[in-house]
Amino acid sequence: MAEYLVLIYEDETSWDNVEPEMLGKILAEHQAFGEHHAKVIRGGNALQPTSTATSVREESSGSYTVTDGAFAETKEALGGYYLIEAADLDEALAVARDVPAPFGGVEVRPIRTFD
Amino acid sequence: MASSVEAAVADAHRREWAFVLAATVRVTGDIDLAEECVQDAYARALTSWPNSGVPAKPGAWLTTVARRRAIDLKRRGSTHDRSMSLLVRTTAKDPDEMEIDVEANGGEVADDRLRLIFTCCHPAIAPEAQVALTLRLLCGLTTVEVARAFLVNETAMAARITRAKKKIAAAHVPYRVPSVEELPARVDAVLTVVHLMFATGHTAPAGADLIRRDLVERALDLGRMLHALLPDDPDVTGLLALILLTDARRPARVDGRGHLVLLADQDRSDWDHSVIGEGVTLVRDALKRRPPGRFALMAAIAAVHAEAPSWNATDWREIVGLYDLLLAIWPSPVVALNRAVAIGFADGPEAGLTALDALATEPVLAAYSYLASSRADFLRRLGRVAEARLAYQEALMLSENAVERDFLEDCLLRLDG
Questions:
Q1: Extended strands (E) in B349-410
Q2: Residues B8, B54: contact at Cβ < 8 Å?
Q3: Strand ranges, E, within A32-75
Q4: Is the peptide bond before B291 cis (omega within 30 degrees of 0)?
Q5: Which of A93, B35, B102, B180 lies 20 to 30 Å (CA to CA) from residue B153?
Q6: How far apart are CA B115 and CA B137, in angstroms?
Q7: Domains of chain A
Q8: Which domains occur in chain B, in start order?
Q9: What's B310's DSSP letter?
Q10: What is the bridge-based pairing of β-strands B400-401 and B206-207?
Q11: E strands in B178-250
């Protein structure tokens, strides 16, 4: 069995303007997704928007710079993730298709292991 | 003797590579290791066949040798841990069980080739890498040959293939025939790759030759292989028919001096009529499914041309009707362009020009020399010489194929003459 991280990328401005009924509907969809795929989900979270992000970089001098904001400013930003288990990419994609992402889509990344 | 053995090995390379590699991947679970073992087996054939004679079933001989080599390497543990490039985790069995009688497992081995091509043409792999991997793993072309076929530099092609193989291993792109629900979409992806390979070979987008025989023949081999493995799939049948019916014209497409000869001017007695017969039978079969798929329709269009006794006797109404059906299921700008050209022959150059001009703003066609060269031809027929000249010049700017460029320059000269 392999593990994959399903990264949810969505348009943050759509999230900022979401109506309460719509928000309730999306949360219910995540709930349903979680129950339907409970056997293969190893974890997952929603993230606060990139406006709350802080980036930390080590400089060549060895000191650290701390800056407000995400690493890259993009229209669609990482907003949440699921960690799932699957036998192969096709199985992982079948689960990924069910992840609710009304304002964008998901990216599937295999988890790297070091042995 | 030596040369006949070399010819037998070359023939086995062409015919059996996919069979041998696919069967070996099952043992190694690793594409790179399987490729190494299969290359070893072909090298071994060159030294042992002169003494032992060419075996009755070269593919079975090569598979047995390649698999034995893979088992040896696994037993010795000399393959270290290649977990990064492991492809088939689920089938990694005890090597002792792997001494499989290849012939008794003919059916399974046939499936292995399908598994391999579905892996190469998985939608998670970039399209240009799908074609490269298919040529490399199914057709046994070296990276240098694949690079040459697509006029890409060798380093770039090697990087493309390596990246795709790493992704197959790291993301666990499966080595299996897709489920029934997924099958139509996945077969379509495979056919798209084979069709692109054929189209690239039929009229090379750039370079000195009009036709890249290597690509055309590999595409034909793959078309035949797929048809043998999936005989009831009408899209597979349609693609094989399309390749046969189009390629049957090959002997007439270039004259003795290497110059392009248009369909209108080709000597139809030079066409390969036995290939046309085979293609026509297949296209009838492919058209039985309603509604017909895109390859069946494209093949049907090629069949109308192939069966017409002359250019003037071509049933252009039938061709326009088939393009209408094709455009409905496959609304591609290139199909629309071909339909517009057919209208020009069915209803005259004025109608053709109107149909072409409706496509002038299509971004995909902006860099496509056929739009300009087709306009030029209709303008010439209408006696609008100055506009025809501009259109030919535009086509020349867009074509990078030497044979096509010569043809267009010739058209310009004749316009003034």
A1: 400-401
A2: yes
A3: 41-46, 54-58, 64-68
A4: yes
A5: B35
A6: 12
A7: 2-110 (3.30.70.1060)
A8: 2-105 (1.10.1740)
A9: S
A10: parallel
A11: 206-207
> Nearest-CA residue of chain B relative to A87?
B172
Provide the whole-model pTM: 0.82
Residue B305 buriedness (CB in 10 A; 0-12 / 13-18 / 19+): buried
pLDDT (tens, 9 = 90+) of chain B, 417 residues, equals 568 899 999 999 988 999 999 999 988 888 999 999 999 999 999 999 999 999 999 999 999 999 999 999 888 775 554 443 445 543 444 444 444 444 444 444 457 888 999 999 999 999 889 999 999 999 888 898 888 877 788 999 999 999 999 999 899 999 888 888 888 889 999 999 999 999 888 887 777 788 888 889 999 999 999 999 899 999 999 999 999 999 999 999 989 888 889 899 999 999 999 999 999 999 999 999 888 999 999 999 999 999 999 999 999 999 999 999 999 999 999 999 999 999 999 999 999 999 999 999 988 888 889 999 999 999 999 999 999 999 999 999 998 889 899 999 999 999 876
Nearest CA in chain B to A2: B172
d(CA B152, CA A42): 43
Instruction: Assess B81–A contact: CB distance below 8 Å, yes or no.
Output: yes
What DSSP designation does B30 have? Answer: B
Nearest CB to A110 within list B81, B170, B178: B170
B166 touches chain A (CB under 8 A): no
Nearest CA in chain A to B170: A110
3-state helix, strand, coil in chain B (%, to 5): 70, 0, 25
- Say which residue the tokens 């348009």 belong to: A11
Q: Is B245 left (phi over 0), alpha (psi -120 to 50) or beta?
A: alpha
Pairing of strands A104-110, A2-11: antiparallel
| ipTM field | 0.83
Burial class (CB in 10 A: 0-12, 13-18, 19+), B360: exposed
Contact criterion met (CB below 8 Å) for A15 and A49: yes
Residue B415 burial (C-beta neighbours within 10 Å; 0-12, 13-18, 19+) = middle
Q: Which alpha helices (DSSP H) does B248-315 contain, by range?
A: 250-253, 273-286, 294-307
